[in-house]
């Protein structure tokens, strides 16, 4: 599995485990895709997402495969109600 897809799966599973509604999950996934695109376009060390820099995320997301299973690690999630 490509790292981008593994990150999305890990975060989706985390949201489901915490009882998020399907529409919240869908909105988060759209937002996550947009965030990942932004990190790829501007891989800077000045901005952060989920505790790591855009540069770190861009290097992970461009890898052919993940170095570790992200399902085995804790990833923070921030849901905001609009």
Task: Please characterize this protein's 3D structure.
- The chain is mainly alpha-helical.
- It is built from 3 helices and 2 strands; from the N terminus they run ααββα.
- The chain has a two-stranded antiparallel ribbon.
- The radius of gyration is 13 Å and the shape is globular.
- The model has no long low-confidence stretch (mean pLDDT 85).
State the total count of DSSP E strands.
Answer: 2
Strand order of the biggest β-sheet: 1-2
Show unreliable segments.
none
User: Would you tell me the structural class of the helices and strands?
Assistant: mainly alpha
Query: Mind summarizing the main beta sheet?
Result: 2 strands, antiparallel
Instruction: Let me know the average pLDDT.
Output: 85
What is the 3D form?
globular
Helix content: 40-55%
SS element count, helices: 3
Q: What fraction of the residues are assigned to beta strands by DSSP?
A: under 5%
Order of helices and strands: HHEEH
Determine the N-to-C terminus distance: 32 Å
Radius of gyration: 13 Å
Task: Describe the structure concisely.
With 82 residues, the protein is mainly alpha-helical. The protein contains 3 helices and 2 strands. 52% of the residues lie in helices and 5% in strands.
Throw out a few tags for this protein.
single chain, 82 residues, mainly alpha, 5% strand, globular
Describe how the helices and strands are arranged.
Elements lengths: L2 H15 L4 H20 L6 E2 L2 E2 H8 L21
Helix pairs in contact: 1-2, 2-3
């Amino acid at each position: 599995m490509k790292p981008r897809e593994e990150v999305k799966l890990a975060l989706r599973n985390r949201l489901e485990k915490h009882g998020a509604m399907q529409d919240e999950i869908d909105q988060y996934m759209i937002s996550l895709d947009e965030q990942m695109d932004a990190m790829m376009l501007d891989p800077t060390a000045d901005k952060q997402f989920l505790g790591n820099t855009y540069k770190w995320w861009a290097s992970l997301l461009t890898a052919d495969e993940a170095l570790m299973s992200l399902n085995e690690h804790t990833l923070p999630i921030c849901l905001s109600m609009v």
